[in-house]
# Entry
Amino acid sequence: MTVLENVKNQSGLSLAFIGDAVDELFIRRYLLSTGLTKVNQLQRRSKEFVSAKAHAKLFR
# Structure
């Protein structure tokens, strides 16, 4: 089975689950590049970007 066939067989929720993980990796990499080093700060800031509330705000 090719990757495209595999993707076509996945539900929208499954694809969103993977998409959220990829998005979070980019956000975490970005936050580390800003010089933040404390895990508490990193966690709090990442939630500002990847939470459902943050996504809703972004799309409005």
